[in-house]
Design a protein that fits this description.
Radius of gyration: 22 Å
Number of strands: 19
Structural class: alpha+beta
Strand content: 25-35%
Order of helices and strands: EEEEHEEHEEEEEEEHEEHEEEHEHH
Number of helices: 7
Length: 333
Amino acid sequence: MAFITGLMLIDAPASALNNGQGEDTKAKVKSIYVRGQGYYPYVSAQSFRYWLRSTMQKYFPGLPTSPVYTAGAGKKQQAFTKGDPINYWDDDLLGYMRAEKSETVTRVSPLRTGTLVSVAPVQIVDDFGVMARAEKVEGDKEGVLLHGHEFYRATLQLPFSLDLASAGTFTEVRRTGYQNLGQETKAEAQRLNLAFDANAHAYRLDVGERTNRIQSLLTALGRIEGGAKQTLHYTDVSPAFVIAAVTRGGNNMFGRTVAVRSDNQPILHKAALAQALQVFAGDILSPVFVGRSEGFMDDASSTLAEFGLTAVHPREALDALAVAIGEHPEWLG
């Protein structure tokens, strides 16, 4: 089995990309507190996937996004997508769970992402503001309303992996995560005459459609947009650095290749990169694609050169990986 395995960094110079539950009139960012170290801001996987869906809708309108339905009420209310991986790329690559009285279908996401979390602890800043006009605000004798929010300066890191064999492959095994098709979608698979593997109990889209979805996802990763508080803290959330390859296994060989200096700035960890390239040499099926924006981690260039690696822009690196996927259909299994 082959996987796209990678690591990307987002440079957030003054940002509040994902907010948690507020306190009184203050909006608070999501963060992890580590005793003795401090606060690590993060963006939840759910939020990142929302960015990804939105970016795909913008750049690839020809790949429709699965509609969302709701059922029940109050605490028993639930929301779910259509659960149709044949016609919707996000049900295919991002997985789903749709549980109804008539049937339950679930799919393990071929795309796995870690939490987008700061590489180092940072000082979270409180910003104080007012809503004020020349006239008085109704109910407030001073004519102002007070509010506040948190923001931070950080480099956020995201490991990711895409199971290439699972992309576009839909099983009907009575097991949570693998009963991908219900009565309606199974009938659709048969109507479209999708290839069927009796041993794996799986239907499969043709290699052209599978390749198109994977390439589109990689292209969107290089152009990803989103994040909260963008009107106040305009932040480019596309990767400032990315390293990725096609590998035999799903473990992330690049997970420790980025470290931090004494000033908490990110740096390419030479020893970790050397070890990864050596230990996983037999599992690397493609070139190692590296992208770096000039002005970010500039000292990485010399380290990469020692291993025969050259960085292009992150968008170009992910686009090149997408091209390689199209040239090697055997990677899709």
